[in-house]
Amino acid sequence: MKKTLISVAVLGAMSSAAFAQSNVTIYGIVDAGIVAERGGKDGNVTKVSSGVANASRIGFRGTEDLGGGLSAIFTLETGYKTDDGQLDNTSNTLFNRQAFVGLRSKEAGTLTVGRQYTPWYNALVQVGDPFAAGLSGSAKNLFPASGINVRNSNAVVYQTPVFNGFSGEVFYGFGEQSESSAGRQLSAAVSYTNGPLNARVAYNNRNNDTASTATTVAVERGIGHNSLLAVNYDFQVAKAYFMFNRSKGLNSIAYPNQGTVGGVTGGIAYTTVAVPASRDSRDGLLGVQVPVAGAGKVIASFIYKDDREAVNRDAKQWAIGYMHDISKRTTGYVSYAKIDNKNGAAFTVGGNTEVGSGDSAFNVGVRHSF
Can the keyword Mitochondrion be found in this entry's annotation (predicted)? Predict the structure, then answer.
């Protein structure tokens, strides 16, 4: 009897110890605002939108200590619309934002497998854009941050530890076609952080080939390239931002909002027509964040798009915003942005989640994190 009680006590202690070494966190963002869009083919639009500053989401993140500085990790994250409660993707994919599992070592780095962000997009959001790809000033309005340039499925990602301020990240997305190179994606970044300086160089390579099937032949469609330099420097009184991107090749410029162009001439509306995606462009950004009274910050940026094709569909965006921390987890925001389209370009002012419909937009809202 005593042996049985001792065994139960030992097993209970071991179970408690194992449980203590594992950790699962439920986290998320609830973001909603009022958006007023002007100057688009849909006319003046005022609406309630979800994910203006940051996409509304709920996720599960877990770690298990395996000993020796090694941990097992996972993340499952889905996006939803605060305004109507639906999933924020048309495919009804449950974990459309992130779904990966992997191992993390303090000395060797982190290796993960699944649906993940590209290093190119991480550089844009985490380093180069003062609006962090949100509000009406989002760099996604003019930079090619859409589709698999943002995240991709069937990906393997390796992140190095930090060595004297330097770190690296490599992303490989399997095309999963009969020809191994068809549809694949390769992205990589090198980061350097030293005090107030944060700099990152990122590259994205997208193979557009399609493999042969029982009814179709293989098609070679070339490679799309994106090269990005992102820098920010904290002067204490203000944080300055700079970003430059070069895109070349088919599908290298996957804009979320470059759809159709239309308007009114002589009081008569003309039919909207599709605007073909460019295959050669340059994007530049200058921005700033200025802290205000400890709990808020003013944000501003200017973006210039230089289309290198013959049609020369250039665009400029000016944006200003203000974010105020109401508490540690709740932030109020307001912002305005205006795009000046040239030569038939049809870029629109959106937020973090929606692409917008007009060439200017004002938004005000609240974001709560948990």
Answer: no
